[in-house]
Amino acid sequence: MSLSVVSLDSIPPTPWKNGGGTARDLLMWPPEANWSVRISVAEIMRDGPFSDYTGFDRWFAVLQGTGVTLQLGADRWEQRLGAPPLRFDGALAPMCWLLDGATSDLNLLVRRDAGRGSMAIAHADHDWVSPVAWRALFTTHALDLQVDGGAVTHVAGAALVWSAQAAQQHWRIASPLPADVRAYWIAFQPHEAQPR
Q: 40, 63, 120, 138: which could join 104 in a potential S-S bond, CB 3.0 to 4.6 Å?
């Protein structure tokens, strides 16, 4: 078993070019200019547009704060705290309006020509099993992660736990999750590795 842990507190925030917030890049994989997966946490301080990510699929989940309204093409979508992650085309570069003050948000970007991604709310009451080798867990608070019923990895505080060798493994959150904890399963399936 090979798990990597990236603490949110170890990543300095980078101001957005438009001055509307900051971002902390937890992971860009592979670690090169032409990355396929990017996971970040953003602090949105004021209303403004998102960046254009043409060619990428994007997932967005509210970690703290009430939430936001996003202009997705002709539609407006409210994304609130506790809601499942919202997936949309990165080319839409939506306008964002804060519902009630600043928010903290989890973002997943996946290059569409590189593979397929997913992000879903993680619960502590069942195993997460997948044929996908590249898998991750993001949590806002400390928790225990158990893999294949073996040793438990304690994750202290807000962090991303990930592995590129997790195919068919049973991942389970082995500690109770208080109501204010936000945790998400994340996966990436490269096109060339898809079963035929």
A: 63
The dihedral built from the CA positions of residue 175, 179, 180 and 183, taken in this order, carries a sign that is: positive
Q: Quote the tokens at residue 60.
A: 């967005």
State the pTM of this model.
0.94
* 38 Ramachandran zone, left/alpha/beta (phi>0; psi -120 to 50): beta
What pLDDT sits at residue 1? 57
Three-state SS string over 12-39 comes to: CCEECCCCCEEEEEEEEECCCCCCCEEE
> In degrees, to the nearest 5, what angle opens at C-alpha 26 toward C-alphas 192 and 180?
110
Neighbours of 12 (CB within 10 A): 8
* Residue numbers in the chain where pLDDT is lower than 70: 1, 193-196
Looking at residue 194, its pLDDT comes to 47
Verify cis geometry, omega within 30 degrees of 0, for the bond prior to 49: no
Rg of the chain in Å (alpha carbons): 16
17's CB contacts (< 8 A; 6+ apart) are none
Name the E strands within 67-169. 67-72, 75-80, 86-89, 95-98, 103-111, 115-121, 128-129, 134-139, 143-147, 152-155, 159-163
Rounded distance, CA 139 to CA 162, Å? 12
